[in-house]
Fold this protein.
Amino acid sequence: MVAKAVGVVVTGMGAMTPVGGTVAQTWNELVEGRSGITVLDQPWAQELPVRVAGLVAADPATSLSTKEYRRMDRCGHLALVASREAWAQAGRPGVDPDRLAVVIGSGYGGLGTVVSQVRNLDTGGPRRVSPHTLTHMMVNGPSAWVSIDIGAQGGARTPVSACASGAEAIAQGVEMISSGAVDVVVAGGVDACVNELAISGFAQLRALSTSNDDPTGASRPFDRDRNGFVMAEGAGIIVLEREDFARARGAEILGRIAGAAVTSDAGDIVAADQAIQHRVMQKALTAAGLSGSDVGFVHAHATSTPVGDLLEAGAIAAVVGKDVPVTSTKSMTGHLLGGAGTLGAIVTIQALRTGLLPGTLNLENQDPEINLNVIKTTTECAGSKTAITNAFGFGGHSTALVIAAA
């Protein structure tokens, strides 16, 4: 899928991350270079081979009513809180419900509910299983709850494309607006998989960092000594609007989605494909009517895995060259899985707005095989007008977004 964004703008942003409970808090911590990765001290984590992760910095329960909290899984909690922040910043657009849609992606949805309810079933039998189990575990739960919250009747979609889910949700939102189907889309991604099942599974794949004694130094994208990603939870949500609709109501425009592309490797279920990553970035640029020389910086997917970072680095260099600034804020937040792609878009928009690009924490010795200008600390990017943010996921899902300044 290639989405040529015809006048699609961003008017609101919301986030729940390991470094902040809002976009402003998250941004401040990223600019300051602070990590949100901690050691898991819960009883269930003590026997795990990996005991570092990123938990959201704010309790979603403080922003939700008791009824709302009970009716949703943690995945829904995070998405609803972030969406309300984004919706409020956008000014709560007055739009025909049929012209308002929600697209919120997730890799694993209510996996936490699955873990807890299987435990209840095993220890107490069928009567111990919650009546909310099925609605809590639905991967489409977050998009459904947000659509109910804002009264969206133009569709509530849920792309499930692993770690590319949030970025693909934005691409789908752009496509819906550009086609004329709707005027406003609340788009984003969320995951809440910091539990014994997800951590054990990824650990068995040898995908996670085992730096249990150094939590803040565990995620180190592009570094010579990287040894896997750090599991994290969180949500990122943005409000997309048709530009003339946003201007007519006097909305502040935060940024523009200039182009988007979604591809599939059609190869290995886990391994990435550098040629496909190169192609998806090039397709997104073509959709935006731009070339690699127009890109001011790249917010990389770079999760801190030995092979993944190396492949993406080669693709980035082939598209934009080796001198363009590149960063990965997963070094501070860990990997939000389905929420990562939208957080990447939010960071990119904030960088274009402020002229500051957060650096890559823990980049002490850049891998000599990675021939890129990876920045270590917050760097000025005031001259940048456009940027690329990438998201790649198991299953061969690849998404690239080209974002332009307002």
Remarks:
- Residues 74-89 form the longest helix (16 residues).
